[in-house]
Every structure is written in C-alpha cells, then in structure tokens.
Amino acid sequence: MGHVNIITGEMDTGKTPELIRLYHDLPVGTADGFASIKAFSEQGAFAGYDLKRLVTGKTVPLIRLCKPDEAPPQQDSFIFDRFTFLREPFVVAEQAIQDILSDPLIRIVLLDEIGPVELQGKGFCKVLKDLLASDKELYLCINRKNLDQVVKKFGIGAYRLIQVENQTFLSH
After folding, report:
1. Could you tell me the CA-to-CA distances from 69 to 11, 63, 78, 86, 152 in Å, in that order?
2. Is 164 domain-assigned?
3. Tens digit of each residue's pLDDT (9 = 90 or more) over 95-117
C-alpha cells in the first residue's frame, strides 16, 4: 500500500475543492483521478453530481436525484438513499484508474467521495481496493461520519488526515 491521505470533513465543508486544489499543486503529469462535482438544473436547483476526470477536466453525469417511484434511467444503475447512481461512468472511471495504475509516470491518484455506497460493495469499491493494493500515493475524500467504517472495511492502516474545516493535518 502506498501512502494514503484522507481529506475529511462534514458535508459541504470543501473536501472536493481541497482535492482539486491539491491536484493543481502537484507537478503536471504525475497525478490523475476523479472528483464528484455538484450538478445543477437549468433553473439552478441541485440535481446531483457529475464525475470530473482531473487530468482532462471532462465531466459526465454520475449521480442524479431520484424522483418518487422513478426507475433507474440506465441498465445496471442503482438507487441509494435519494439518488440514482449511473453505472456507466463508474465503468469508465474504473478502466481509467486501471490505466493510471499501469502508468509509471502517474505516482499520485486522487478519488473523491468514498462512503456508504462503497461500504455496500458498490460505486468505487473494487477500484478502491486496487488502488490501496498499489504503490501509488492516494488522496481520498471521505465524509467524517463514514471515516472509521471506510478505514476499517478497506484495511487502511497508516494515513494522513486532512481536515478541511480548519486545514489541520494529522497522522494516524
């Protein structure tokens, strides 16, 4: 397992902006990964999240708010809490991360929003296991309320904790 950095905090405290800031501070060509970016309707209402590839800046729909009694819009999509998770973007991201893992120039991988979905074996669960088994340095965003469960489930021993609300850096 490479060095693990966990960016944590409560909901809407700036974990994703911190992940993106850290990415932009790294030397070009040495890092890649994905961030979950809030998506809004044309009227400005929160609609869900898009998946952004950090190296290209390209975004695709990933998670959308469910409408009552609505079936998932894509085959293999799943509903969790109040959201529909689209399967295809996860498949594309998993393949991209496998490519990143085999690229010796990429030494750092950043992955946003590991939480209850991964704890249930869905979302980025499989690729997170692959990342943790690699020698790459990782930056993971995990909501504080899910931190202990994620660390335990995925066997993350030593890690550096980055708390976004006050920018405190702690080692565990």
Report:
1. 26, 17, 13, 17, 34
2. yes
3. 999 999 999 999 999 999 999 99
